[in-house]
């Protein structure tokens, strides 16, 4: 049996450049026709612990711009936040930090 040939590699590839586990993700809450603005403020205060002023600013962004980034961090944590928003009845997704 002949050994397999190993091709010569001329290019050095930095694997960290294509997959960066530390790259942040975002939880995005989207506007919907169902939930009251006061309810969205309550959810953001209760779940994230935001002060009323921050929760109100985020809610207004959701209402006026259609969405708001409510949290940033590791992907797994953002997935948990998005699921929690779903449990509260809000529309939420995650995305990589642009």
TrEMBL record:
The alphabetized UniProt keywords are: Hydrolase, Protease
Which InterPro entries does UniProt cross-reference here?
ClpS, ClpS_core, Ribosomal_bL12_C/ClpS-like
Identify the domain of life: Bacteria
Q: What does this protein do?
A: Involved in the modulation of the specificity of the ClpAP-mediated ATP-dependent protein degradation.
GO MF: peptidase activity
Keyword hit for Hydrolase? yes
- What is the name listed in the Swiss-Prot or TrEMBL entry for this protein? ATP-dependent Clp protease adapter protein ClpS
Describe the subunit structure.
Answer: Binds to the N-terminal domain of the chaperone ClpA.
| Domain Adaptor protein ClpS core, residue spans | 21-93
* Pfam families per the UniProt record, alphabetical: ClpS
Query: What does the similarity note say?
Result: Belongs to the ClpS family.
Give one GO biological process term. Answer: proteolysis
């Amino acid at each position: 049996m002949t050994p397999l040939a190993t091709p010569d590699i001329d290019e050095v590839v930095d694997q960290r450049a294509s997959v960066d586990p530390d790259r942040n993700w975002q939880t995005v809450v989207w506007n919907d026709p169902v939930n009251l603005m006061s309810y969205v403020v309550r959810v953001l205060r209760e779940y994230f612990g935001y002060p009323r002023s921050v929760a109100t600013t985020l809610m207004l962004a959701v209402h006026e711009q259609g969405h708001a980034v409510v949290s940033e961090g590791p992907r797994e944590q953002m997935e948990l936040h998005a699921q929690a928003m779903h449990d509260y009845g809000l529309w939420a997704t995650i995305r990589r930090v642009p």
